[in-house]
Amino acid sequence: MFQEKVPLIRYSNYKIGGPARYFFESDKTDDLIAAVQKARRLKIPIFILGGGTNILFSDDGFNGLVLRPDIQLVKKERDFLRVGAGVSITQLLNYLIAKNLSGLEWAGGLPGSLGGAVYGNAGCFGGEMKNNLKEVVSLDISHPSPRIIKRTNSECDFGYRSSIFKKSKGREIILEATLFFERGDKKAIQSVIEQKISYRKERQPLEHPNIGSIFKNVALQGMPKNRQKQFAAVIKTDPFPLIPAAHLISEAGLRGVSRGGAMISAKHPNFIVNALNASAKDVRDLIALVKNKIKEKFSINLEEEIIQV
User: Fold this and answer.
1) Residues recognised as catalytic
2) Each residue's pLDDT tens digit, 269-278
């Protein structure tokens, strides 16, 4: 049933990672349940993998089961769409363009799968996944007998790059989500999506393997007034007033700094790119360096947006 010693580098946008002891993927819920039950019998940990676009795998790999739900459902039901967790955001956007459906244009160029986007409440350009979600179906694997759970938007506890699924730390597998959209003009929808894609190509180091923004932007709320004034010129609202982590990293003089094969991008310093066969240790060393420098210079604790396995 399980593949053994599967190199996780194959499933990583970073092109970094050792082997998974066991690996299994399926588009069928019953198969996923059977895989979970087998892993429980073997008494091994389970890691749920989506598109691999925000994950730093260890150089040692994962000594357990990497489980990848690859549910490729896209089905229109009345005014809603049911979308499987394995559908890529690119696939979904192409479908929306073809069907003249508006509301997700902000996600143009967003990497990864729908499941991952829901899990981390992905967002950019002022938009967030939660704004399009009606409900989410997941598989709770924390019990001896896995069970299906259906949650409304408000029950998903969405926050800034967070959700109940992320907080549950692997106890649930997102299977599908129901999203709502509005009718729109195909050319207008496509034009906005292409603008977002072009913006990413221009501003982000997509020429190197990467896993997107490493650190969350810093919330302005709760900061002393003098500190808010210090950053007034760079504050952006996405979706609420934030100080871009990229600005802090740049101001700390860390653009272009490298460790081994990993490098803090000069193009977008909140990206640490795999410039030359980087190891996970190289990336972790840079993450630690950035956090220490920002703490030292600004008395701000940066929090990672990525997941480390």
Assistant:
1) 161, 213, 305
2) 999 999 999 9
